[in-house]
Design brief:
alpha/beta, 6-stranded mixed beta sheet, 7 helices, 6 strands, 35% helix, elongated
């Protein structure tokens, strides 16, 4: 089992914790991580794109000239696609881009992404993530003080209101609840910072086979 130090906001070691191999030493499976990220981004797509067909564009369906005898190509109206301001053929229509992914695969992808951060030494555990005031600047200094020099995913409970508010206005910090961690957030952030309580909740959720 990999062992990781537990720190406080002063970057001092206050203990250590053993990380279960089944989660934090999981083999890296790039194809699963890729599929989980793709699945997450597909779910974010609005799918509200739309073009008008010939039945929806404005204009008359009246025949512009007689069928035969003019020497011109026959026409049935001014809304066919070959006309200016005519309808679009096979254009995009509103649709749901999301698709289902096996829960077991999602968990395996998350374990894989977390294990990679542990291997890189980019996973930090804090004894307590609570702060006294919801100040963006002071919170950023606290995070930098524990050795974080890039984008970080902060994992704790959303009841930690001061930390949630302090991180909200900082583009380099993202705060999520322990039960809402997803593969895209882990991959998209260089560091993962968890409170000890959040680590326990996340471990329990990923240990559950269902």
């Amino acid at each position: 089992m990999p062992t990781i130090d537990i720190k406080d906001w002063n970057n001092k070691k206050v203990g250590s914790v053993e990380l279960p191999d089944a989660i934090f030493a999981y083999p890296y499976k790039e194809h699963l991580v890729h599929e989980a990220v793709r699945n997450y981004l597909a779910g974010l797509r609005q799918g509200t794109h739309k073009t008008k067909t010939r039945s929806e564009v404005s204009g008359s369906g009246k025949k512009p000239f007689r069928q035969k005898g003019t020497g011109r190509a026959r026409q049935g109206g001014n809304r066919p696609p070959i006309h200016r301001h005519g309808g679009t053929v096979f254009g995009p229509v509103p649709r749901d881009h999301s698709y289902k992914m096996n829960t077991k695969e999602k968990k395996a992808a998350l374990k894989s992404a977390l294990s990679q951060r542990v291997k890189e030494g980019k996973l930090v555990v804090l004894s307590d993530m609570s702060v006294e005031e919801a100040k963006t600047q002071s919170f950023a200094q606290k995070v930098a003080g524990i050795g974080i020099d890039g984008k970080a995913l902060l994992v704790d409970t959303m009841e930690n209101t001061n930390a949630v508010l302090a991180a909200r206005n900082n583009p380099r910090l993202q705060f999520v609840d322990a039960l809402h961690v997803n593969v895209y957030d882990v991959v998209n952030n260089r560091y993962i910072v968890l409170s000890q309580a959040a680590l326990d909740r996340l471990t329990e959720a990923l240990s559950n086979e269902r």
